[in-house]
Amino acid sequence: MKTFKYRDLSLQQLKQLVQRNVDPANEIRTVVEDVIANVRKHGDKALIDYAEKFDKVVLNKLYLDKAELAGLASTLAPEQKAALQTAYNNIKKFHQTQLKTEDKVETMPGVTCWRELRPIERVGLYIPGGTAVLPSTFLMLGIPAQIAGCHQIVVCSPPQKNGKVNAFIAYVAQLLGIERIYLAGGSQAVAAMAYGTESIPAVDKIFGPGNQFVTKAKTIIQSTTTCAIDMPAGPSEVLVIADDTSNPEFVAADLLAQAEHGIDSQAVLVATSQNIIDATLAALEKQLPILPRAEIATKAIENSYAVLADDLKQAMQFSNLYAPEHLILATENWNQITGDIINAGSVFLGNLTPESVGDYASGTNHTLPTSAYARAYSGVSVDSFVKKITFQHITPDGIQNIGPSVEILAELEGLHAHKNAVTLRMNK
């Protein structure tokens, strides 16, 4: 990992350093646009062809039913089921608090306004299944969808070599009461959920992380259809802020935990002393070779770097500019700088709070904005699965109180039919 000194970097250099270059030549976009067009035109046939091309599996049908999922789930060991159940319980407990009824507000006598929640009727969940199978993502998306009360939950996940899904995903389907999983991955799954095929229903909003092809498909779908997406995310990332109270072995482990996601992942260390950077990199060199996914992590580390800051305040300035998906404050002094956090997807406080707990079982959601989208987007929550509809009710006294103001405003805008709609009621 290359090290940069914050004080030596110009504003332009800082902007270049935090920039994530995804598909600069639009090569991915070209491929994805062809996939979307093919799925839209040929439906199931295109999905079956892509499964053979990309997943190296010949499918006889595009889904697993309740009985098939139960058979897969039954192969798990009791301790594995217990771990998934623990994660399910914690995630559900945290997300249930997000479903709130708002108070009605009388903005003036006789004029009452309020908002009510309504679930998005049809949602699509994309569960990755590439170099790493992610049943945790299924929990993170399925639980808030259920709490929100979505009427139809469509789940897509890439098929394995045996034409099925991982047993962990099958067990999560049981926990969630999902009785069908569609065997489609990549950008073709996103297209299928956006447009619908003979087997896969079209949805109103698509959720879930994925590789650059999935991400590109989601951004294209959002701009060309009425189907919404959770957020325009990219490769996963972490930024760790460390000082002399940090444990270099813990910090190294956190950097590698992020790096093993994929070769395009990024792990950034921002430290207040060169000694911490050196000790962390030494610990990283010891931990890296023994990882099963060492080859992947190595390439991600090559895409990563360290920044030497003068103090924690300066470190946080860099973090806000970077706007990380995951922010770890690996310091005993974290409470001194949490108030300075402006841009971050999810934050992990102190030396004993690894990002891994948020990925799996603390309760918070791990579907988060990447590629600096944390400047404007939040992570997935129950709010992501609902619409908030405004209501207003005017009484006889209310129309007399608010009417004159509306008449004046409508007239100054030249919208006389608007004015008349109020005037008629006032005169009545």
The gist of it:
This protein is an alpha/beta fold. It has 3 domains: 2-22 and 235-363, Rossmann fold, CATH 3.40.50.1980; 27-99 and 121-232, 3-Layer(aba) Sandwich (Rossmann fold); 395-427, no CATH class.
Please provide a written account of the structure.
The protein is α/β, with parallel strands linked by helices and 428 residues long. It folds into three domains: 2-22 and 235-363, 3-Layer(aba) Sandwich (Rossmann fold), CATH 3.40.50; 27-99 and 121-232, Nitrogenase molybdenum iron protein domain (Rossmann fold, 3-Layer(aba) Sandwich), CATH 3.40.50.1980; 395-427, no CATH class. 44% of the residues lie in helices and 17% in strands. The protein is built from 16 helices and 15 strands. The protein has helices at 11-18, 27-42, 44-54, 66-73, 78-96, 135-148, 167-176, 186-195, 212-224, 248-259, 274-287, 294-302, 312-322, 355-360, 396-412, 416-427; strands at 2-5, 63-64, 105-108, 111-119, 122-126, 152-157, 181-183, 205-207, 228-229, 237-242, 266-271, 305-308, 326-330, 346-349, 386-394. Strands 1-12-11-10-13-14 form a six-stranded parallel β-sheet, sandwiched between helices. Strands 2-7-6-5-8-9 form a six-stranded mixed β-sheet, with helices on both faces. It has a three-stranded antiparallel β-sheet with strand order 3-4-15. The radius of gyration is 25 Å and the shape is globular. The model has no long low-confidence stretch (mean pLDDT 96).
